[in-house]
Amino acid sequence: MEIAPACVASIHYTLTDDDGRVIDQSSDARPLRYFHGAGNIIPGLEKALAGRHAGDTLKVDVKPEEGYGVRNEGLVQELPRDSFKGVDKVEPGMQFEARTERGPLLVTVVAVDDDKVRIDGNHPLAGQTLHFDVRVLEVREATEDEKQNGRAGSP
């Protein structure tokens, strides 16, 4: 069976950056299982997996536009330190959920001084080309429940 909409595929992957550093990878005990065609993984990887079969291996380079997007400097802001009332210590790397007119947005603290906090609402991998090394383990027809939910469930 080939990977197509309304199928569930299980893959092992290693994700690296342009310098070859490992950013993420599946563990041998827990492959990534996803429902194909519902946007549950980044578009560039999903497109590359379409038509593949169990046993296939592939290397995929995903440009930012097909991954986590290009960086948007408008999502980088400086806020007054008192915007973080109730938080004793604000440090770079901390993440908060901001409420925006478009809904919630996960922001990361990138710098802190005595009266200002610089936050970044871009995904940490925005603007990066992503390099995947993938092995397709299994492809199966989705269950009716998975089709209704648009997500892979337990096999």
Structure summarized in a few sentences:
The chain is mainly β and 155 residues long.
What does this structure look like?
The protein is built from two helices and nine strands. The chain is mainly beta and 155 residues long. The protein has two domains: 86 residues, Chitinase A, domain 3 (Roll), CATH 3.10.50; 48 residues, Beta Barrel (Thrombin, subunit H). Strands 1, 2, 3, 4 and 9 form a five-stranded antiparallel β-sheet that branches. It has a four-stranded antiparallel β-sheet with strand order 5-8-7-6, with no helix packed on it. The chain is elongated, with a radius of gyration of 19 Å.
Which features does this protein show?
Thrombin, subunit H, 2 domains, 8% helix, five-stranded antiparallel sheet, single chain, Chitinase A, domain 3, cytoplasm, 9 strands, elongated
| Most strands sheet | 5 strands, antiparallel
In whole angstroms, the N-to-C terminal distance is 16 Å
Q: Which fold does the CATH topology of the largest domain refer to?
A: Chitinase A, domain 3
Class inferred from helices and paired strands: mainly beta
What's the oligomerization state?
Answer: single chain
Label the CATH architecture of the largest domain: Roll
> Rg to the nearest angstrom?
19 Å
Element string (H = helix, E = strand): EEEHEEEEEEH
Beta-strand segment tally? 9
Taking pLDDT < 50 over at least 5 consecutive residues as the criterion, the unreliable ranges are none
Pfam families: FKBP_C
Enzyme class: isomerase
Main location: cytoplasm
Family: Belongs to the FKBP-type PPIase family.
